[in-house]
Design a protein that fits this description.
It is a multi-pass membrane protein. The chain has 882 residues and is an alpha/beta fold. The chain is built from 26 helices and 22 strands. The strands form four sheets. Strands 6, 7, 8, 9, 10, 11 and 12 form a seven-stranded mixed β-sheet that branches. The protein has a five-stranded antiparallel β-sheet with strand order 2-1-5-4-3.
Length: 882
């Protein structure tokens, strides 16, 4: 209803009704002022005429003194309908009608002209008696209410007329308004379609109303201008994307050479000063690469081209690894870096953990940059949790310089710093927080800030993730050591650290006791000894005032009252002699802060078990390639050529170099015995795309397939798809890291024609640890001798089964392939060789389906996994069989 009265028709109708409501009182007043006097004058004339007529009728009867006849005559007068009173006054007395009178009021005096009283108009007419010349008076009283009834009738008829007139007017106005509004609504609908992105329609009002037609014409001109602006914007966006791609290539290509050559130089014999200089150069190159990546990320976000991944991850493990990367910078400034995750936080989620870590790295990196002393705390807790989704609330707090209220909103804008001195003192592009804010919005959250100058800042943000339903393979294994109800003493001078470790240990079912100094720790140990009990484990902070962790450990080892207790030293410093001091004092484990949940768990299990390995992840080492490759490298940059040739030839591969795509075609015209081509995308004469298209065109005639890996500095969305679309088999982005390059090249060292996704999966499998002995040991409830025996049996049976599989593939014996692969899969999973088991399972499926197309390639991949697995098994057997 409100919408109607705000419309054109509604407003028109309201105007018409208002006008008529104003006219009605004017009409009634006009009736009162004009019609009523006219009716009254007409009435007076009428009654005077009647009175004269009646007097003429009465006069003849007076002369004969016929009183009875006069009474009858007066009665007839009263039957007139208008008369209410009639009598004749004579000298002999008054003669009245022979019927009852309606008015009883008597005349005061005779008069000719009448007077009004009680709705009766009185009139006296003198009559001369012709018989004796005496004067009589005919008195008449007329009823005036008829006049009032006539006026009321006129009022009523006027009201009917006004109502009919108003109705007809409203109908005409409604039809006219609709006729005018319909083309306007049509123009509105057309405008909405254009606003929704449908630019094919045209503005056409469909009416001959001049003003509306002119409006439609102007709107059509605006639509044409909009189309022109859109086309110009799309062209500009395309030019921007092309510029970003070219800029990315032009910057990343020399960066690839700089980083690669520095890496090669660091592997040579250098003086300490040279190593220091090269290390600084390497750090600067990494910083420059981060700036380039920030600019590209910002451009993707601005163009709405940035998409988030949707993959499973573990919150505690991921954030723990991220803070480990930043711990070194924090410890260099003697800052305490802590991670506190609420025990109720779900651990298995689905989302883009890379972008989540990017936000964390930016916020924590800024906190480290602007904090000179104190602590930095990352806190994670669930804001809302249901069966399908979880909303995490993450806060990064510091004790740094803080931000004034008038600058707090500025820092979220692109290329913004608090002031110019911040850029000079702390560096940075001013893009980090802007990118982080946009990433948080893409994750369904919001980034906000609370800060006070000289007291620190806290950045809050929320992020929404899907819950990950774990499979049977993801199910947790039983711990080697049961830690429930174990008493643990936590010694740390930082209250937040005490709270974090206490929450974690309580969540695991342990009984933690917290103290904030070395002296309090000794007191707690004495109190426990007096009760006849002892702590099973001490978590001891190395950096404490007055009495540090090493002094506490020494006091514990020297005091005979304390039973031997497992001590785990936690340190935020990275001093080179700490490990040696721990060994001298009999400290069981030395762990650097911040401590991941899994790292703390494994460290506790290792420290209490006294036979497990230290919980430090070893670097993944690429296995020796099973076959040396002949590689054709297409690269126009001499530095990149040299770096790639050195890296590949160190692995034993043979490399031939072409400076452009045309040289690639010339070389292939005389020599086709290459295993693969590393093809740079942007080269002079003929680029990588053109060369690939030419190679694929010739292969359609020969039926062969040369493996081509794109090597490009382009880093925008769609670049990989473009490479695959022209016929390239895979894609690696510059600057190329050594392990990435070798993993990509050597995962192609297999027969068959696998698709790109299978090669990516193979690369991922070969990057996993070959042997997860901890999971295998937990499956046999910590019985190491049993696991050693199982590994020995696996070694004895794997070689014959591999031979059976090779024979089955050659003879295409599906049943033999299935049985051999099934046995190897089961045995490998039992000893913790999960990458080996996954490949064996693929071969088992191929045997079950009798699909031998990719069997040879998978078998070669299984051989590579076997080569990686053998030294890992030997290392475990050597350590635990001693």
């Amino acid at each position: 209803m409100s919408r109607f009265f705000h419309s054109f028709n509604g407003r028109m109708i309201l105007a018409v009704v208002g006008i008529h409501l104003l006219l009605v009182p004017v009409l009634l007043f006009g009736i009162y002022r004009v019609i009523k006097p006219s009716l009254e004058a007409q009435f007076v004339n009428y009654v005077r005429s009647d009175a004269l007529l009646f007097s003429n009728l009465v006069t003849p009867r007076l002369q004969h003194s016929k009183a009875g006849e006069l009474q009858g005559l007066l009665g007839e007068f009263l039957l007139n309908g208008r008369l209410a009173f009639a009598e004749i006054a004579t000298e002999r007395g008054n003669i009245r009608a022979d019927i009852e009178l309606n008015a009883q009021q008597q005349f005061q005096e005779d008069f000719f002209f009448g007077e009004h009283d009680d709705d009766i108009y009185f009139l006296a007419v003198p009559i001369l008696n012709p018989e004796d010349g005496s004067l009589a008076m005919l008195r008449l009283g007329y009823d005036e209410r008829q006049i009032q009834r006539d006026i009321a009738t006129i009022y009523q008829r006027s009201a009917y007329f006004v109502a009919v007139y108003m109705g007809l007017t409203l109908l005409v106005v409604g039809l006219f308004g609709r006729k005018l509004v319909m083309p306007l609504e049509r123009l509105r609908d057309e405008a909405e379609q254009i606003a929704a992105g449908n630019h094919t329609g045209q503005f056409n009002s469909g009416t001959k109303i001049t003003e509306v037609a002119a409006l439609a014409e102007h709107l059509e001109k605006m639509r044409q201008a909009l189309l022109s602006a859109r086309d110009a914007a799309l062209q500009a966006a395309g030019a921007k994307s092309e510029f970003l791609a070219n800029m990315s290539h032009e910057i990343r290509t020399p960066m690839n050479g700089i980083i690669g050559m520095i890496g090669l130089a660091l592997r040579t014999d250098l003086t300490p000063q040279q190593r220091e200089f090269l290390g600084m150069a390497n750090s600067s190159a990494d910083a420059l690469l981060r700036i380039v990546n920030d600019i590209l990320d910002f451009s993707k976000i601005e163009a709405r081209k940035l998409e988030l991944d949707h993959a499973p991850f573990k919150v505690r493990e991921s954030l723990g690894d991220t803070l480990k990367l930043l711990a070194g910078h924090a410890h260099e400034k003697d800052l305490e870096l802590m991670l506190r995750i609420d025990p109720e936080t779900p651990d298995d989620l689905l989302g883009d953990v890379g972008r989540l870590n990017q936000v964390i790295i930016n916020l924590v990196g800024n906190a480290i940059k602007f904090t000179q002393h104190g602590e930095i705390v990352v806190q994670v807790k669930p804001e809302s949790v249901d069966e399908n989704k979880v909303c995490l609330q993450i806060a990064v707090s510091d004790t740094g310089i803080g931000i004034s209220p008038d600058k707090q909103q500025l820092i979220f804008e692109a290329f913004a710093q608090i002031d110019a001195s911040s850029t000079r003192k702390f560096g940075g592009t001013g893009l980090g927080l802007s990118i982080s804010s946009r990433l948080v919005e893409l994750m369904g959250g919001h980034l906000s800030l609370e800060s006070e100058e000289h007291k620190g800042s806290t950045f809050f943000f929320t992020a929404v993730f899907d819950r990950h339903t774990k499979s049977e393979a993801d199910a947790p294994f039983q711990p080697l050591i049961d830690v429930k109800n174990l008493p643990v003493l936590i010694v740390d001078d930082n209250a937040i650290n005490l709270r974090v470790f206490s929450e974690i240990l309580n969540h695991w079912g342990m009984r933690p006791t917290t103290v904030d100094s070395g002296e309090a720790a000794i007191t707690a140990l004495k109190s426990m000894a007096e009760t006849g009990e002892a702590y099973a484990l001490i978590l001891l902070d190395a950096m404490m005032p007055i009495m540090d962790g090493f002094m506490v450990a020494q006091a514990i080892r020297e005091d005979q009252r304390f039973e031997p207790v497992t001590i785990m030293m936690l340190s935020s410093a990275d001093r080179p002699d700490d490990c040696e001091r721990c060994h001298d004092l009999g400290i069981n484990l030395y762990v650097r802060k911040p401590v991941k949940h899994s790292e703390l768990w494994n460290a506790i299990q290792s420290a209490l078990g006294k036979s497990a390995k230290a919980a430090e992840a070893a670097l993944t080492v690429l296995a020796e390639p099973p076959r040396k490759l002949r590689i054709l490298l297409a690269e126009d940059n001499p530095v990149n050529q040299y770096m790639a040739v050195v890296l590949l030839e160190e692995r034993g591969h043979t490399v031939k170099v072409a400076n452009n795509g045309q040289e690639v075609l010339d070389i292939l015209a005389t020599d086709i015995l290459f295993d693969l081509i590393l093809m740079d995308v942007q080269m002079p004469v003929m680029d990588g795309f053109q060369a690939t298209e030419a190679i694929r065109a010739s292969e359609r005639e020969t039926g062969k397939h040369m493996r081509i890996i794109a090597m490009t500095a382009h880093a925008l969305k769609g670049d990989r798809e473009r490479c695959l679309a022209v016929g390239m088999d895979d894609y690696i982005a510059k600057p190329v890291q050594e392990q990435d390059l070798l993993a990509m090249v050597e995962c192609w060292n297999m027969a068959g024609t696998e698709q790109a996704d299978k090669h990516s999966m193979a690369s991922a499998l070969l990057a996993e640890p070959a042997l997860d002995w901890q999971q295998a040991l937990s499956r046999v409830r910590g019985r190491q001798q049993m696991l050693c025996k199982m590994m020995t049996l696996f070694q004895e049976q794997s070689a014959p089964l591999l031979n059976d599989m090779a024979d089955a593939i050659q003879r295409q014996d599906a049943e033999l392939l299935r049985l051999s692969a099934h046995t190897l899969k089961s045995s490998a999973n039992s000893i913790g060789a999960f990458p080996f088991g996954k490949i064996a399972q693929q071969l088992e499926t191929m045997g079950h389906e009798a699909a031998f197309t990719d069997a040879a390639a998978s078998y070669e991949l299984l051989q590579q996994a076997s080569i990686r697995l053998e030294p890992a098994i030997q290392e475990y057997l050597h350590e635990f069989q001693e």
